[in-house]
Specification:
Layout: H1 10-57, E1 81-89, E2 92-109, E3 112-120, H2 122-127, E4 137-140, E5 143-152, E6 160-165, H3 166-169, E7 204-206, E8 209-214, H4 218-222, H5 225-230, E9 233-237, E10 239-240, E11 255-263, E12 266-269, E13 271-277, E14 280-283, E15 292-307, E16 314-329, E17 334-338, E18 345-354, E19 363-372, H6 379-392, E20 401-411, E21 417-423, H7 434-448, E22 457-468, E23 473-480, E24 484-485, E25 490-499, E26 505-512, E27 522-528, H8 530-538, H9 552-561, E28 567-574, E29 578-581, E30 584-586, H10 591-597, E31 606-609, E32 612-620, E33 625-626, E34 628-635
Parallel strand pairs: 8-9, 10-16, 18-22, 23-33, 24-34
Antiparallel strand pairs: 1-2, 1-4, 2-3, 3-6, 4-5, 5-6, 5-7, 8-12, 11-12, 11-13, 11-15, 11-19, 13-14, 14-17, 15-16, 16-17, 18-19, 20-21, 20-22, 23-25, 25-26, 27-28, 27-34, 28-32, 29-30, 29-31
Helix pairs in contact: 6-7
Length: 636
């Protein structure tokens, strides 16, 4: 059928011409649209190809090409070319090359080898081996061979590292992920190697793990630096990042670590993820603290940047949301499980400072809240660091103040441990708040190292009140109302005290002579501080081998009975033996009964003191007391 035919007259022809132009225009429009559609489709296809290529090439998504097949150690040879993944900045997982130098057999222990590699590429050659890079997955022949875990020397010109074989990290082997692996299992040494004693700069050592402090000043961390370095940590300042829904979606090359403290300040470790199998996570390639089987919260870490240094390059990280539990901390790997994190110990710290005259005695108050892990080796140190930092890094604290500490430690199934003491400024350069941290650490150490049962702490509540000035007292002299007394009589005792500044003053108290004291005997009146009276009444071997409590309840009772250092004490001692049996004090024991147990094997611990504490009095002074005066009293 023709598109156009000649019409019968002019009118029909005009209509026919108009119809033809209309049809032609419509046909041309359709052709144009079709051409545009074709062009658009070609553009979409090109864009999709470019996007797909971008997915393959994007540094943050390189894990899409990573293999779950592993390479047994027996197939590793010198000269093999490989690569590894880590994060230098943000969430972008980056790939860098490496070459196998050789295999060091029996390096960590019997049948515990290390693969020695040289890192290659502009970034790693510039930064060297970076603190926080431990755990970076290493691939040889496209198969997972292990994780970066060691570095060689300091100020070295080449980036040489040690790789923990993957067969030693995945222990015991699980289904699926290790189906293609020829993995042998060995018993692991109890401790990791640290310094080997080789010449400086020529030894392989674990790559440092950044211990990220958020909300801590360097001056606060410095007070505990020796204890932190003993665990192999590098203290680094960092921050916290808001939790994200994708935090738990870990892939090899991401970063994660332990949560030690969280709340108004946080302490976290960070290293690189080596492998993920279902909800199991393997990271670090070496121990964090070599704690064995643990239950510590695991959190995602996000790299802000990598600091390059000739001495020690390190990653600066923010800690993200909690994603599960660190379940193992062993020689060749840290292991974790994705899911809900374990419970932590709440620590509530209240700081108080009396107001000035303009505030009419109002007390300024600040409350801080922290949560800490519950672990016998590490919790005492964390409590000390957190308490010291919380105290010293706020506007309520100032040097030259007397600090009064009170609080309690609540334990599951036991009476709470009461804490109360006063601390005055010293003449040394150490911060005034450090003795409080040391005291708290000592109490927790005694609780956690007890040999009776694990100390399960429910909550810690501490209250610190600051008073301007130094309030401390020294015992200069003491005297009795008279030199002799009768049984049942009450005797006055006067004590001359010298404060830190100002005039000396006299304090007075009374002690009552027991009715059963034999006439003609001589009693000893001990005017002293709390520590000396504690020692005199329980023996100088108190707390040492062969003495002390035999249960956690008894230990708590002893802690709660210890005297306070801001009181002046007067103790009245009679020359009658006291038998200390475990936590029990048995004064005035007849010699016939003492001879039955003295020097013979008995259950528990037994100690005999030559004196018995027959009476005691105290005077609160509001500041630490030191000194001792011993007086004799004749019983007529």
């Amino acid at each position: 059928m023709a598109l156009w035919s000649q019409p019968a007259d002019h009118t029909d022809r005009a209509r026919s011409i108009a119809s033809w132009y209309s049809a032609a225009y419509h046909y041309r429009f359709m052709l144009t649209v079709r051409c545009h559609l074709c062009s658009s489709l070609r553009f979409v296809r090109v864009a999709l190809l470019a996007f797909a290529a971008g997915l393959c090439l994007a540094p943050g998504l390189v894990h899409a090409q990573q293999s779950t097949e592993i390479l047994p150690l027996g197939q590793v040879r010198a000269g093999m070319q490989g690569y590894a993944y880590t994060i230098f900045e943000g969430d972008q997982i980056e790939k860098f090359d490496l070459e196998v130098i050789g295999v060091l057999e029996n390096f960590l222990g019997p049948k515990q080898a290390i693969i020695l590699v040289q890192l290659k590429g502009p970034k790693v050659e510039h930064t060297g081996v970076v603190a926080g890079m431990s755990g970076s997955p290493v691939y040889l022949d496209g198969k997972l061979a292990g994780a970066l875990s060691l570095k060689l020397g300091i100020f070295t010109k080449e980036a040489i590292a040690g790789v923990t074989p993957i067969g030693d990290m995945l222990n015991p082997p699980s289904q699926g992920f290790l189906a293609q692996a020829d993995v042998q299992q060995f018993s692991l040494p109890a401790e990791s190697t640290t310094r080997t004693g080789l010449p400086f700069g020529s030894s392989l050592e674990p790559i440092e793990t950044p211990l990220v402090f958020s909300g801590f000043q360097p001056a606060a961390i410095q007070q505990f630096s020796n204890q932190l370095q003993a665990y192999g940590f590098v203290a680094a300042q960092g921050g916290t990042a808001a939790a994200r829904p994708e935090d738990a979606h870990l892939v090899p090359g991401d970063m994660a670590g332990m949560v030690l403290v969280q709340g108004d300040a946080s302490i976290n470790s960070a290293c690189t993820v080596t492998a993920v199998e279902a909800d199991r996570v393997y990271l670090c390639g070496h121990p964090l603290m070599n704690l064995g089987n643990v239950a510590i919260p695991m959190a995602r870490s996000r790299v802000v940047t990598t600091l390059s240094s000739n001495l020690a390059s390190t990653k600066i990280v923010n800690v993200g949301g909690a994603i599960g539990t660190i379940t193992g901390d062993h020689l060749t790997a840290v292991t974790g499980k994705l899911g809900a994190p374990p419970a932590m110990i709440p620590l509530d710290l209240t700081l108080l400072v009396p107001g000035d005259d303009s505030s009419k005695g109002a007390v300024r108050e600040k409350k801080l809240h922290f949560e800490l892990i519950n672990h016998p080796k590490f919790t005492p140190l964390l409590v000390a660091i957190t308490t010291f930092s919380g105290l010293t890094q706020n506007s309520l604290y100032g040097e030259g103040t007397t600090l009064h500490l009170s609080g309690e430690i609540r334990l599951q199934g036991h009476a709470p441990v009461k804490i109360e003491n006063t601390f005055a400024p010293g003449d040394t350069l150490s911060p005034d708040g450090l003795p409080i941290a040391t005291t708290i650490q000592n109490v927790f150490t005694r609780l956690f190292v007890n040999t009776f049962e694990p100390a399960k702490v429910d909550r810690i509540t501490l209250r610190i009140e600051s008073v301007l000035g130094r309030k401390s007292f020294t015992i200069e002299s003491a005297w009795l109302e008279k030199g002799e007394a009768a049984p049942g009589e009450t005797l006055r005792v006067r004590v001359l005290l010298r404060p830190y500044r100002g005039a000396s003053r006299v304090e007075e108290t009374t002690v009552r002579i027991p009715e059963q004291v034999a006439r003609g005997t001589t009693l000893r009146v001990l005017v002293s501080d709390a520590d000396l009276l504690n020692r005199a009444s329980r023996g100088f071997a108190f707390g040492g081998p062969g003495s002390g409590p035999t249960g956690l309840d008894q230990l708590i009772a002893l802690l709660n009975r210890e005297r306070r250092n801001d009181r002046l004490y007067v103790g009245l001692f009679a020359p009658a033996p006291t038998l200390l049996w475990d936590d029990k004090e048995l004064p005035n024991i007849p010699l016939s009964q003492i001879n039955v147990v003295d020097g013979r094997p008995t259950p528990g611990s037994v100690q005999v003191l030559r004196e018995s504490l027959a009476g005691e009095a105290s005077i609160p002074l509001g500041g630490p007391v030191s000194g001792v005066i011993s007086l004799n009293l004749q019983i007529r």
